[in-house]
Specification:
Elements lengths: L1 E5 L6 H14 L4 E5 L5 H11 L8 H25 L3 E5 L2 H11 L4 H12 L6 E6 L2 H14 L14 H17 L4 E5 L4 H19 L1
Length: 213
């Protein structure tokens, strides 16, 4: 079972990934948590380049190719082996994020991104993609609060530093992709209480959990 969590900055993806992982562990299921970018050793180095706010000179096309490189390595080294070993695979962002951030957000050619994603993923896509949706202002405020709470004030990454219009295009892009892929995407209200949202996710996954136990 391959599940991806998607959403804008501050939507609460990482928290929900962690809560789901604890739940799967409690149920005694084999699972693997990973993320993009940064799900491999090489990917961690790529992630550092992509998120470092000092890299203001990075071209949108360079950014796009770095994400594709991270994904190709991720598929070969982590995702395909996990699926072949019959594990639950939970991924914090996947190829849809490239479509919305580099496509809708950076105005890169969507058809080219789709072609690049198909090459990098080798046709492997999540069975379910959970879109945690919230207003941009809510997400960015959460992201900034997290930075303050972790003593990283003033250290927003390259994407958190983008203007409101960029993040609005990203959110709209996610909603468009979800509408185009209703059999894979489920939109969830990310403004809900963390535990309430977690319970909604567990309820959605319960039929799959029962099939695999």
């Amino acid at each position: 079972m391959f599940i991806s969590f998607e959403g804008i900055e501050g939507c609460g993806k990482t928290t929900q990934v962690e809560l789901l992982a604890k739940y799967l562990s409690h149920r005694g299921l084999h699972y693997l948590v990973t993320r993009e970018p940064g799900g491999t050793h090489l990917g961690k180095l790529i992630r550092q380049m992509l998120l470092d706010p000092a890299h203001t000179e990075m071209e949108p096309l360079t950014e796009l190719f770095l994400y594709a490189a991270d994904r190709a390595q991720h598929i070969a080294q982590v995702i395909r082996p996990a699926l072949e070993s019959q594990q639950w695979l939970i991924c914090d962002r996947f190829a849809d994020a490239t479509t919305v951030y580099q496509g809708y957000g950076r105005n890169q050619d969507l058809a080219f991104i789709q072609q690049l994603n198909e090459m990098a993923t080798q046709g492997i896509w999540p069975r379910l993609s959970l879109l945690l949706d919230c207003p941009v202002e809510v997400g960015l405020d959460r992201a900034r609060q997290r930075i303050v709470q972790t003593s990283l004030e003033g250290r927003e990454d390259r994407f958190e530093q983008q203007d409101l219009a960029f993040h609005q295009k990203v959110r709209e892009g996610y909603l468009k992709i979800a509408a185009q892929n209703p059999n894979r995407f489920i939109i969830l209200d990310a403004t809900l209480d963390q535990q309430q949202l977690h319970q909604e996710i567990v309820a959605l996954l319960e039929p799959y959990l029962e099939d695999m136990e």
